[in-house]
Amino acid sequence: MNNITLPEITKRLLDAERILLLSHTNPDGDTVGSVTALSRALRLCGKKVICLCDIEIPERNLFICGEGAYLTSCQVRESDLVVSVDVASAQMLGGLRDTFESRTDIRIDHHASADDFAACNFVDPTAAACAEIVYELITLLPCDLCEEVASPLYTALNTDTGGFRFSNTTARTHKIAAALMETGAAAADICETLYENVTLESLQSNALFLEKYQLHMDGKILFLPITMTDKERYGFTDENIEGYATLSRKIAGVELGMVMRERDRGGYKVSMRSRKTVDSAALCALFGGGGHARAAGATIEADSFEEACKKLIDGVLANIVFER
Ligand code: AMP
Ligand code: MN
Ligand code: MN
Fold this sequence. Notes:
The chain is an alpha/beta fold. It is built from 14 helices and twelve strands.
């Protein structure tokens, strides 16, 4: 892996005029918040910046970047420098993969399990979110940190740590969060938007969860298969399903929660969340995916949903190791 330092990244950014920032598909709070903050800081430095993701930013994350902040396609030649943020693998570029897999100049990431598709990589697996890295990077740029930059970074930190509760949260995470609040990040408003706004659909989703969950290995593994038909029955989109994986790990006795969904755009996607006894990233790597030890994902290659589920369960049951 070809590594690059933060001062070197700063130089490359300041030498460029037109910069393209890439977020990963199924864009979450970290990729959207980190890219948004970096784009705003770079514009304050006089740069032309395009933010790109293969799909529209989901409704629930739009408050981070605002409407129209992202494009869903563009030409590589429209930029001097292509930087991906929070993209652990070429698979996570989704529909942008063909164009950008071999054209990404710098990858900024915090996933330990990663394929280094970019020319240069800055990867810090001790960072709870890419927002921690982007915060350090922005302090090296010739612009002042302001609320418009601090709020998306705070959101990114908050979401990737599950509200500062997951085991990736460190003293550094809290120190950066404090610095962002001092700069004007609207912490209480952000938390209200993130956590105190459940929709009736998401409450109803608990019924689907209770109806469909399966237990394996004496209840240590919870598996939830969600088909397009299930989603249609409840009027759900993929967005309504995302909280299920986190919910499954909350249940007493469950060490590994796995949610398999037939995606709106086609394909079969598994999300894993585990307690400290299970390495989710290692299990997802069996299927070409990856992520973090406690939260990982993969797209399963199969001809039908049933086949994808069988492949997943067989693979996990044969390979899972419970550490004590
Ligand atoms: P998800 O279940 O999609 O929310 O993913 C959980 C974590 O795993 C996130 O940090 C993702 O960035 C990461 N992840 C998801 N899919 C992949 C993949 N195919 N390769 C590497 N990391 C992934
Ligand atoms: Mn992410
Ligand atoms: Mn992240």
